[in-house]
Amino acid sequence: MNGSLPSSPNVVDIKLKRGSAGLGFNIVGGVDQQYVVADSGIYVSKIKEDGAAALDGRLQEGDKILAINGIKLENLTHKATVDLFRTAGEDVELRVLKKFPQHMNGPTGSQPEHKSPVSSLGMLAALLGVASIFAFIYIRNHRRHF
C-alpha cells in the first residue's frame, strides 16, 4: 500500500480475494454523490451475506474506503470508484477507516444501522406545535372577560 496515506488505530488494511459474486459489498459516495455532508469519501453501504467481505469479517457497513490497491479514492466520482473496483484484479487490498461508534445511531455490532425517520428539527417543530396548542387552550379557558 501507499505509505503516504494517514495511519491511525482506526485505519486498517484489508486484503480480500474476489469471489464468484465479486467482493461482496456495496458502496456509496463520491464527489458527485456525497453520502456524508461535506465528505466526498466512499463508504460501505451493505455487506452481502456469504460474500468475500462477510467471510473475512473485518469490513463493516459504515466504514470509509480510503484506497484500493494503493490508489487513493480522494476526489473521485462514484462511477470512477466503481471502475477501480472492477479492474482491481482478483486480490484486492483496501485501506479502510473504521467507522466511529459516536457516528452510529444505535447499538454497535454487525447489525445494520437504523436511522430514525424523524429528524431532530422535525421533533423540535412537533414539540413547539404541541406547546402552542396547549398555550392557546390555556389562554382561551383562563381569559377574563371585562
Give a concise summary.
By secondary structure, the chain is α+β, with helices and mostly antiparallel strands. The protein contains three helices and six strands. The chain is elongated, with a radius of gyration of 23 Å.
Structural notes for this entry:
With 146 residues, this protein is of the alpha+beta class. It has a domain at 11-111: Pdz3 Domain. Helix content is 25%, strand content 22%. The chain contains three helices and six strands. The chain has helices at 52-56, 78-86, 120-142; strands at residues 11-17, 25-29, 42-47, 64-68, 71-72, 91-97. Strands 1, 2, 3, 4, 5 and 6 form a six-stranded antiparallel beta sheet that branches. Strand 4 and strand 5 (71-72) form a beta hairpin. The longest helix is centred in the C-terminal third of the chain and has 23 residues, at 120-142. The N and C termini lie far apart (83 Å). The model is unreliable at 102-115 (pLDDT under 50).
Characteristic terms for this protein:
Pdz3 Domain, alpha+beta, six-stranded antiparallel sheet, 146 residues, elongated
First-to-last CA distance: 83 Å
Number of helices: 3
Fraction of residues in helix: 25-40%
As a percent range, the share of strand residues is 15-25%
- The residue-averaged pLDDT reads 81
Main beta-sheet strand count, sense and barrel state: 6 strands, antiparallel
